[in-house]
Each structure stands twice: as structure tokens, then as C-alpha cells.
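Supplementary Methods. Inverse-folding protocol.

Structures were first reduced to a C-alpha cell string of length 456. This string, shown here, constituted the complete conditioning input.
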């Protein structure tokens, strides 16, 4: 019996050891990985939420993008060179270096949004689910990726164009694509997104990107490329809808910006926050808050007509408050304007007016679009007798964009794209129209040739 018992015991130990190994290798059921999470519709929807969440962070629209897009311009001044080792003030005074932490976190924040979007776009095709719902998820991921790349190329010019989920060793081989290549990918993403997304969502899902949002952002991309005929054709359906006032419409900016931001017909796409809530990121503290005079709103009140309802919303009224545009009550029950608008109907009308004027001066639709924004603001209308040339109209539109979109992180980019930098900031070298690539990103790649922008 002994010669049979010993082999049986040995085999039993082997089987037991093998079983224990398999048991110990099991991942905890509540510890998901990319391979176990993105396997069904629920996983895709959860991943999509994380894409939107990336936009809310301080690295992007919660804080830093406001510095890079607005404080850099001439609407806001940061008066505290000592705060945060001067990283914000150095951007204000054009002395930032590649070691600036705001630049580093903003770069990383945008690529985090892109990485999360890429996971969705990589996994969605292989998941069995309702095709319409799947396409809507893909469309939203492409919109967020396109928005992120639009910001990246406006900030840094040439940037790595990453369209797949990469491992660390792959990322170290990245090179910078040209702005033209990045813009083409943005156009591809937004064109596809516009075809897949619905024009509206149910109220509970209003934070999601729509076909209107994809088209509005696509038109803005064309505007930056000076493809004015494409701006016009892309925006025509939106402008028609805005004039109809059923789904989209301009809304006066009175006590809040604009009235009921979460439900406003003026807002085409916004990054959502709760004022004091917990379901979304809390409204960021640095919404140009005036703490001991560290931020000053420098857009002159004299630029507004006396009747202009936008005038009071871009002024600081005391220490510790935000300008009226973003100084809504911090109450979850009445949270209405803690969000940060990215695309609005007023912006669409002004892009439309600008593009029509660049195609040919004197278009009545250009005056109609410009005056729709001014009438909404309770400002006087502009006539051909007042704006007698293409140059006059162009100047009027540029000013109107400054007044209408003040503090919405568009001003610096408008200054650069309209070639006003040398006039508004005389003596500042042209290379500072884009930012230095963060040194940490250069350190992380194997081939560092051509990574830093000229002048830095």
C-alpha cells in the first residue's frame, strides 16, 4: 500500500498547490483594470464619465486653462509675483520657462483626457450593444479628444498626436506632429462626432456633447485656419436654430451668467460643476477670485455702452469674490452658474459674422448676426453707415468678442489668431505666442530633437 499512498499524496499536494496559486492570482472583484472594466456598455459609460471629469480638473477648466487663456491676455492681471513661486505671474508678464508647473500640469491634464478618450475609442468597436448608443459614446469621446487637441495646439503649436492607448515604452518614442496634422485629426474627429451625436439630450444628460457642439467647435477650428467659407457653411444650421429660438438662443447676461447656465439655450457645451455639491467637481476657487487684490479685471468699463448688460459682470466688487459672471450663490439647491461655458450661441453668431465679413464685406447676414449679439446685450446696433469697410467691421467683431466672451478663456487665443499681439503687447517677442514645452515632457522622451519651441 505504501508504494501507492506516497504517489497519491504527492499528486494531491501538486493539485492543491496549483489550485492555491490560481486562487491567489484572482483579482479582487472591486479592483477593476482596463481589461476587466471596458467590457460592456456599463464600463464604456463609466469610462466616458471619466473623460468629462478630466475637463473639470484644476489642470484644465477648473483653474490653469483660465490662466493660460485669459490672464495671459489683457482682460485680467495677476498682481502677485510671490504666490505659488510666481508661476502664474510669470505667465502674466511673459517670463515663464519650461519649468513652469502650470504648463506641466496643463499638458498632462489634456493628455489624460486624450488617454481616457482613446481607451473608449479602442474598446467600443468590440463591445456588443445597441449601435446607436455605441455611436453616441464614440462621438462624445471623439469630441473630448478633439477639444483637448484643439487646446494643446493653440497652447504649444506642434504636439504629439496620440490616437491609441500607449504603454510607457511606446510613449517614449513619441514625436511632435505639426499643427496642420493635429488640426486635420481634430476635423476628422469632429466631423464624425457631429454625425453620431444627437442635437439635444434629456435634461438629466445636458452635460453631454451634442451634434451642435461638435459643429460649433469644428467651425472654430476652421476659423483658426482662416477657412472662412467652411466656417459659414458649418455654422449655417446652428445660426438658423439660434434665430428660431427653440433649442438654441442667445440669452441676456443679467444677474447670472447667462440666466440659468445649466439650462440656458445660449450654452451649447460647458464643463459642469456644482456650487457646493458633491456629484460633480466643486466650482473651482480660482475663477478670477479677488483675494487681497491678487487678480485685477483690466478690461475697461469704458469699452461698454452704459446700457450694456454685460458691463457689471466683468467687474470685481470686493475682496474674496469673483466677478459677477462667475459669482453665483454656492447652494446645491439653486446651482445655476457654477459651470464654465466653452461654446455659446453668442460665440457662434460672432464667428459667423466674422467669417461672412472675411468672405466679402457688406453681407446683410453678417450685420444681422453681429447685431443679434449686441441687441441681446442691450447695446446699440451697428449699421453699414457706421462700419463702412471690411476693416471697420473686422474691428467691431474683434471688440464684440472681447466684450461678450470676457473671462471665458478665449481672449488670449483671439489676440494671437487675429495678429493683434504686437499691437496689444508691444515689445513682447513673437515666439511667446505659444508656450514652452514642459521640460518634464522632453525629459521623458528618447529623442529630444525638435521638442522645444523656438525661443525657449
Amino acid at each position: 500500500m505504501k508504494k501507492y499512498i506516497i504517489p497519491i499524496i504527492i499528486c494531491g499536494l501538486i493539485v492543491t498547490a496549483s489550485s492555491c496559486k490560481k486562487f491567489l492570482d484572482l483579482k479582487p472583484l472591486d479592483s477593476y483594470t482596463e481589461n476587466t472594466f471596458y467590457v460592456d456598455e456599463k464600463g464604456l459609460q463609466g469610462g466616458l464619465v471619466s473623460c468629462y471629469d478630466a475637463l473639470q480638473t484644476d489642470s484644465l477648466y477648473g483653474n490653469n486653462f483660465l490662466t493660460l487663456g485669459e490672464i495671459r491676455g489683457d482682460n485680467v492681471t495677476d498682481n502677485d509675483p510671490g504666490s505659488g513661486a510666481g508661476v502664474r505671474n510669470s505667465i502674466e508678464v511673459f517670463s515663464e520657462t519650461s519649468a513652469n508647473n502650470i504648463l506641466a500640469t496643463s499638458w498632462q491634464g489634456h493628455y489624460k483626457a486624450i488617454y481616457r478618450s482613446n481607451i473608449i475609442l479602442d474598446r467600443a468597436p468590440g463591445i456588443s450593444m445597441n449601435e446607436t448608443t455605441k455611436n453616441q459614446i464614440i462621438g462624445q469621446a471623439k469630441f473630448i479628444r478633439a477639444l483637448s487637441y484643439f487646446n494643446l495646439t493653440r497652447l504649444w503649436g506642434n504636439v504629439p498626436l496620440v490616437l491609441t492607448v500607449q504603454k510607457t515604452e511606446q510613449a517614449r518614442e513619441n514625436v511632435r506632429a505639426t499643427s496642420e496634422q493635429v488640426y486635420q485629426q481634430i476635423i476628422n474627429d469632429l466631423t464624425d462626432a457631429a454625425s453620431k451625436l444627437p442635437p439635444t439630450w434629456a435634461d438629466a444628460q445636458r452635460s453631454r456633447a451634442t451634434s451642435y457642439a461638435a459643429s460649433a467647435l469644428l467651425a472654430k477650428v476652421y476659423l483658426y485656419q482662416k477657412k472662412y467659407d467652411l466656417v459659414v457653411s458649418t455654422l449655417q444650421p446652428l445660426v438658423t436654430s439660434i434665430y428660431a429660438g427653440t433649442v438654441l438662443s442667445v440669452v441676456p447676461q443679467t444677474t447670472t451668467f447667462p440666466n440659468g447656465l445649466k439650462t440656458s439655450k445660449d450654452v451649447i457645451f460647458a464643463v459642469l460643476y456644482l456650487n457646493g455639491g458633491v456629484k460633480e467637481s466643486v466650482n473651482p476657487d480660482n475663477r478670477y477670485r479677488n483675494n487681497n487684490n491678487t487678480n485685477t479685471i483690466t478690461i475697461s468699463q469704458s469699452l461698454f455702452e452704459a446700457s450694456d448688460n454685460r458691463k457689471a459682470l466683468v467687474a470685481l466688487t470686493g475682496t474674496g469674490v469673483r466677478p459677477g459672471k462667475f459669482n453665483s450663490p454656492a447652494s446645491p439647491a439653486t446651482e445655476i452658474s457654477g459651470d464654465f461655458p466653452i461654446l455659446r450661441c453668442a460665440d457662434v453668431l460672432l464667428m459667423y459674422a466674422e467669417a461672412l465679413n472675411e468672405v466679402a464685406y457688406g453681407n446683410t447676414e453678417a450685420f444681422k448676426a453681429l447685431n443679434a449679439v449686441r441687441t441681446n446685450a442691450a447695446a446699440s446696433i451697428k449699421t453699414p453707415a457706421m462700419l463702412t469697410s471690411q476693416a471697420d467691421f473686422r474691428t467691431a467683431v474683434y471688440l464684440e468678442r472681447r466684450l461678450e466672451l470676457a473671462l471665458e478663456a478665449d481672449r488670449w487665443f483671439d489676440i494671437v489668431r487675429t495678429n493683434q499681439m504686437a499691437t496689444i503687447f508691444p515689445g513682447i517677442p513673437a515666439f511667446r505666442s505659444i508656450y514652452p514645452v514642459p521640460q518634464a515632457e522632453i525629459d521623458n522622451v528618447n529623442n529630444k530633437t525638435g521638442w522645444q519651441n523656438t525661443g525657449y
